[in-house]
Specification:
The chain is of the alpha+beta class. Helices cover 62% and strands 17% of the residues.
């Protein structure tokens, strides 16, 4: 004899299906009934986001590449990080003093970071390369900011001391090389050979003017290289200055879309609160809740 079917189970299952369909239909009906409210909130959100979009600050990012043999990678990066900390703290007075820039320029500076730090060998010299990135509210301050950053790095006490020491060493070496070159030129001009008497005979020692000329040229080239290094010692070299990019980095388009979305969510929240209150009142009055 076959077992009887549990009709209550099937009934509950079917009721659940009907309830789910009725629930979806009820949600659509509520949204349709409050369609004007939704449109109003979306429109208000669009107006607010448009106003914020128009009045929002545009921020721009740019970078410059510097080279120096006097400032180590670690120290250079530390100086820029210190400057960025001052910017984030809003210490405009200290920043203006260190960069030697007007307060109006500092107000438009948002951040300053070191993007890359590398070391490269150029001949016998080691160059430390820094890429410094800044975020600003106005591209017009970039030339002033470039000079300010260079002055800030060059006038650091650690850097100035090392420059003074190296400058003194270079000047002494240049003086020595110059004197050696003058002596070689003097000998080359006055002697084409010499004879030295020794014992009963004569030994002839020939001095080749060509070798002396080559030595003079080598000393002259060495002197020029030292003078070039001395001329560049006071300056942090700008490999590539700040480039002006017209496109802002601020995600303004997202801001424009955020308003209508927030307006829609607020409208849905208000509708939910209204429906819950309506449901609670019917329950309190003993009226069956709508399906």
């Amino acid at each position: 004899m076959a077992p009887e079917k549990n009709n209550s189970v099937y009934k509950n299952y079917n009721d659940d299906e009907i309830d789910l369909g009725d629930l979806l239909f009820g949600i659509l009906a509520v949204l349709r009934a409050n369609f004007k409210l939704i449109i109003v909130f979306v429109f208000i959100g669009l107006l607010v986001s448009t106003f914020l979009y128009i009045n929002a600050d545009r921020t721009y990012k740019s970078g410059m590449i510097l080279s120096t043999g006097m400032l180590s990678v670690e120290n250079g990066g530390s100086l820029i990080k210190t400057m960025d900390q001052l910017i984030q703290q809003g210490n405009d007075k200290q920043i203006a003093r260190l960069l030697e820039l007007p307060h109006e320029t500092i107000e438009k500076l948002i951040s300053m970071t070191v993007a890359t730090e590398t070391q490269e060998n150029v001949g016998e010299l080691r160059a430390n390369i820094f890429k410094i990135e800044v975020t600003v509210l106005d591209n017009d301050i970039l030339p002033l900011l470039e000079n300010g950053i260079i002055n800030y790095l060059e006038k650091n006490p650690y850097v100035r001391k090392r420059i003074e020491i190296k400058k003194g060493n270079l000047e002494a070496l240049i003086k020595h090389v110059h004197q050696e070159r003058l002596e070689i030129d003097s000998v080359r001009q006055n002697l084409t050979g010499s004879m030295v008497a020794k014992g009963d005979g004569l030994n002839v020692i020939m001095i080749d003017p060509a070798n002396m000329y080559a030595g003079s040229i080598a000393m002259f080239e060495k002197e020029l290289e030292l003078r070039r290094e001395l001329m560049l010692i006071d300056n942090i070299q700008v490999i590539e200055g700040f480039t002006v990019f017209e496109k802002p980095v601020t995600p303004l388009f997202r801001l424009l879309l955020a308003g209508p979305v927030i307006g829609l969510l607020l409208a849905v929240l208000i509708i939910m609160i209204k429906e819950i209150n309506k449901y609670m009142k019917k329950k309190e009055q003993g009226t069956p809740a709508p399906a």
